[in-house]
Design brief:
6-stranded mixed β-sheet; 1 helix
Length: about 210
C-alpha cells in the first residue's frame, strides 16, 4: 500500500535567516517630520479604516529619499496594520515613501495606510516619535491608537528571501527523499541560510531531517 510520503514534507517550513544587511546609510529625521492625513475612509461591515498620509518637513533643510516610517510600537492591541510596505529585520512594519527628495518645508506624495480593528471600530490614528518608555494601552475596543514611529531618509528596504524546495515528490514509506533548497534566493542579494522543520510524519514513517 502506498502512502503520500510528501505530505509530511509539504508542511515543512523553509526558514531563512537573512544576514549582512546594512542600514548604515539611513538617517533618522523623526523630529523633522510631521505626518499629515489627507483623507479617510471607513468600511463598517469589515471594520477597515483607510487613511492617506503624507510626510511634511518641519525643517529648512532638504532631505534625500526614499523615506521609511517604521511603526515601533502601538498602544492598542485591537488595531492591526493591514498593508505595510514591508517589515524590518526585527519584524517591525514600515511604510515606504519613494519620493527621491523632500524640499525644505515641503511634502511627499501621499500613501494609503489600511487598519483593521478587532471590534470593527473606526480607527482614529495619532503619531508620536518613538522612545523607549512605558506605553499606556487603550481600553478594550477603543477606536484610538497611537503609533510610535521612527522616520528615516535615505532609506533602505529589506525584501524577504524566496524559498524554493524543488518539485513535490510522492514516494512510499521507507524511501529516502532528498529535498534541495539551493534554488532559493534573496532579491537583495543578501546571504541566506536555511533549515528544515518537520511538522508531521506519516503513519509508519521514521522520517527525519537529518
Amino acid at each position: 500500500m502506498k502512502t503520500r510520503l510528501f505530505q509530511c514534507f509539504s508542511v515543512l517550513t523553509l526558514i531563512f535567516a537573512v544576514s549582512s544587511f546594512s542600514f548604515c546609510a539611513e538617517v533618522n529625521i523623526t523630529d523633522k517630520i510631521k505626518i499629515s492625513k489627507e483623507s479617510l475612509g471607513y468600511d463598517k461591515e469589515n471594520g477597515i479604516t483607510s487613511c492617506n498620509f503624507l510626510l511634511k518637513s518641519k525643517s529648512k533643510n532638504a532631505y534625500t529619499g526614499p523615506f521609511k516610517v517604521v511603526i515601533e510600537e502601538t498602544n492598542n492591541p485591537n488595531v492591526s496594520i493591514v498593508n505595510p510596505s514591508g517589515y524590518t529585520r526585527t519584524g517591525k512594519p514600515y511604510f515606504a515613501y519613494l519620493d527621491q527628495n523632500l524640499p525644505p518645508r515641503g511634502k511627499t506624495t501621499s500613501l494609503n495606510w489600511v487598519f483593521g480593528h478587532a471590534c470593527k471600530s473606526k480607527v482614529s490614528v495619532k503619531f508620536k516619535p518613538y522612545s523607549a518608555t512605558a506605553i499606556k494601552l487603550q481600553k478594550q475596543c477603543s477606536k484610538q491608537v497611537t503609533l510610535y514611529i521612527t522616520v528615516f531618509s535615505e532609506a533602505t528596504f529589506n525584501h524577504p528571501p524566496v524559498a524554493d524546495a524543488g518539485l513535490d515528490q510522492d514516494v512510499t514509506v521507507g524511501t529516502i527523499v532528498t529535498l534541495d533548497g539551493r534554488n532559493s534566493s534573496d532579491p537583495d542579494g543578501d546571504p541566506i541560510t536555511y533549515q528544515w522543520t518537520m511538522a508531521e510524519v506519516p503513519s509508519g514513517s521514521v522520517a527525519n531531517t537529518g
